[in-house]
Design a protein that fits this description.
heterodimer; A: mainly alpha; 0% strand; B: 176 residues; mainly alpha
């Protein structure tokens, strides 16, 4: 059993499990699956700066902060007990492409050649980590949700805005992965 | 509208009366509020749900930068399979909850919110898409990646919080 859990889970196991988070949260307390809002609650709690957007009772949304703390702990648990010893198995075409950028370590969730503390202030590190993170936080709030809030919860609830947002997530991602990343990492 | 009146009067709205203007209806989440007041420790169940969710996200490799690159290069079905089957499972669940009017564990009705389409779904969506491919992470995976030991992602998360803050600061001037 433990051996099975340590292997990467196939999509047809993981996908439905992720989908089940939707009814789980609804039944636990009428909560809509969504994560990017936690970033807003952190702003409201720590640096509201009299900005109207952050003037609300974030304590009422504290379940969301417990939820993201849990996600972090989930990562800790996997890293300590359920770690897959093998590097991630990706398409050989991607392996070849990434080798051109000096990425050859496929262990872990992010390529250590780029995502490390020493690389933080290099041009590629700045774009990938600093600007990338900024775009994630700015874009999700502007769009009104992220992959969980729109692409899973919103689509599950048949919301047109969520479909529009999801299509735009994909367009943005295709542009960045195919046009920008090759330039940034060259 | 309300934002304007807020400026004109220059009065600080109290936290309880200010329901963050029209944004709540535009936002994907945090629109639900329980009628009952529950002990603080009841939030632990969301911590537990988060732990389960975090484990699934890591084991499904959907928080892997490599898997995200594969997805956006159409080199693998994996991510599409995960997201697609998650959506279908979620849809069936929502349909069942609606059809049988299933209540929460506290006996409260489950409510759903309609979202209004706005330009932010497009502009914000495109911006987030760029960030998703660069970092290999959406907000949830940022937390999970840090948990797996990629400590430098703390910087990415702090910048995501900064991005959210800057959006809040300038949202009146952005097209919606």
């Amino acid at each position: 059993m433990l051996e099975f859990l340590k292997h990467p889970w196939p999509w047809y196991v993981a996908g439905p499990l992720i989908g089940l988070m939707v009814p789980a949260l609804l039944l636990l307390g009428n909560k809509s699956l969504g994560i990017s809002s936690s970033l807003r609650h952190i702003c409201a709690a720590c640096v509201p700066a009299r900005i109207p957007f952050f003037q609300y009772d974030w304590k009422k949304e504290i379940w969301n902060l417990f939820f993201v703390a849990g996600i972090l702990l989930g990562g800790v648990i996997v890293a300590n007990f359920l770690q897959n010893p093998e590097p991630v198995k990706v398409n050989p075409a991607l392996v070849n492409e990434l080798e051109n950028y000096g990425i050859s370590n496929f262990q872990g969730m992010v390529p250590v050649e780029i995502f490390n503390w020493n690389n933080l202030l290099t041009p590629s590190g700045l774009v990938m980590m600093v600007i990338g993170g900024f775009l994630v936080g700015f874009g999700t709030r502007y769009a009104g949700g992220c992959t969980s809030g729109h692409s899973i919860m919103g689509l599950a609830n048949l919301q047109l805005p969520s479909l529009v947002a999801t299509i735009c997530f994909m367009i943005g991602g295709f542009l960045a992965a195919n046009l920008f990343i090759p330039i940034i990492l060259k | 509208m309300e934002t304007r009146s807020f400026r004109e009067t220059g009065k600080e709205l109290s936290v309880s009366t200010n329901t963050d203007f029209e944004v709540r209806s535009l936002d994907a989440v945090d629109v639900h509020e329980s009628e009952q007041t529950k002990p603080f420790l009841n939030n632990l169940k969301y911590l537990f749900a988060g732990i389960i969710f975090g484990i699934i996200l890591v084991k499904a490799e959907v928080i892997s930068w490599f898997r995200i690159q594969e997805m956006f290069r159409l080199q693998s079905f994996h991510m599409y399979g995960v997201i697609g089957s998650a959506v279908v499972t979620g849809m069936i669940s929502v349909w069942l909850i609606r059809k049988y009017k299933v209540k929460t564990i506290y006996g409260e009705p489950v409510t759903f919110v309609r979202k209004k389409l706005n330009k932010g779904n497009i502009y914000g969506g495109l911006i987030f898409g760029l960030g998703w491919a660069l970092t290999g992470a959406c907000p949830g995976p940022l937390f999970a990646q840090i948990g797996t030991g990629a400590t430098v992602i703390i910087v990415t998360l702090l910048n995501a919080i900064a991005g959210t803050w800057v959006y809040g600061k300038f949202r009146d001037r952005l097209p919606h």
